[in-house]
Here is the input.
Amino acid sequence: MKANIFFGSTSYESSKYREVLSPYDKRVASLVAVCDESDALKALEIAKKSAEIAKNVPLHKRVDWLLDVAKTLQLNKEDMAKTITDEVGKPIKFARVEVDRCIETIKLSANAMMSLHGETFDTTAMPSGKSTLSFYKREAVGVVLAITPFNFPLNLIAHKIAPALVAGNSVVLKPTSSAPLTAYKFAKMFIDSEFATADALSVVYSGSGVNDALVQSNIPRVISFTGSVPIGKEITRKAGIKKLGLELGGNAATYIDKSVDIKTVAQKCALGAFINSGQVCISLQRIYVNEDIYDEFANELAIQSKALKVGSPYDDETFIGPMINHSSVAQAKSWIQNAIDEGAHVLCGSQCENLMFEPTVMIDVTEEMNIVCEEVFAPIVSLIRVKDFDEAKEKMNNSPYGLQHSVFSNDLLTCKRAIDELNAGGIVINDIPTLRFDIQPYGGIKESGLGKEGPKYALEEEYTQIKSVVIC
Here is the structure.
């Protein structure tokens, strides 16, 4: 099926399409329109005109729009889940979870907008003031550019376009070219809704000149991007004066205290390290283990990792499906080999056939190895022996990334110190740093990004702006 361009509410066929192959069996999963600079500019102009209309649409109609899309998505849940699996190889049970989370994200966006409001203030509070009626209100920012990745090709679109549209903005969406049909079907639900604001959503795909045309244009007032640090830096350099929401890379770590139940924690860590083949920004990559339980924990983690089923993403029992492409596999393999050459050892895994990468646990690693200090984005986790939380904290914080970390401990003081002393946008106590709830404020510090996702917080920081009013 073709993933066509949406110029506003109208679907257009492209003069050229590219095949998107399933990473699992190499079947043609979809055909994506190949766009160019002129397509990007046309979408932006349509969005600019629509933004003037969208901001004046009554809130109840915008809320009805989102709820209607949520209903439509619920009715088409299995088809959407299968589309995700076809395009990116995500195991079907996790694709279904992503659809469920997407529905929740849409509803959360509607609810958050209903409770978003301004505030009055007393201008006689200072001697220089005088009696007025003064307040601020929130209003739409205008045009939003949303750029999304392959690893959560549905829900991460929802995190951008649902709050943006319900706030009264127009949106130009540029989804990953690895899952264009997922994006097309989702966008079509918005566009076909009886409550849709005309031309408020456009969709374009990759092609020559597209990125620069979108990012450098003065039309978008907000760019919301989820992806790699290098591309995030490039967007920052080229964007000019705009609001930026950047959800970038991570190098999530956890500390395992000697007070924990080892089997339970090992089960959680295996899930956090290997879900979605490790292709998650908050995938557990570094595990710092108290030296008193290191050997026992390493053995148990290997047992739990080997028990995870690697296989067909269409099998309900599969935990790990294929990685997205051969270049990702090649990088992961090279980093493992480099680590081995420098003295590391493979505790389990490391084999890959036809993009099916076994869950891999590395030991005897050092902080300088790529599998430890860089974002791996593959099913690889490294175990590091530490004396105590102080040593773990120093190593966890010694990273250019700061998205999410966690600790496992039954010691209250250790947990409190982790909350106060770990440098990351999110801290999880007694669970994996891969844990994310769509209602929470989510986003990193340092090179992990700017701004927050989560509908309420994205509405406040990115998709609305404050207008101050003084009536004398």
Summary: The first helix runs from residue 37 to 54.
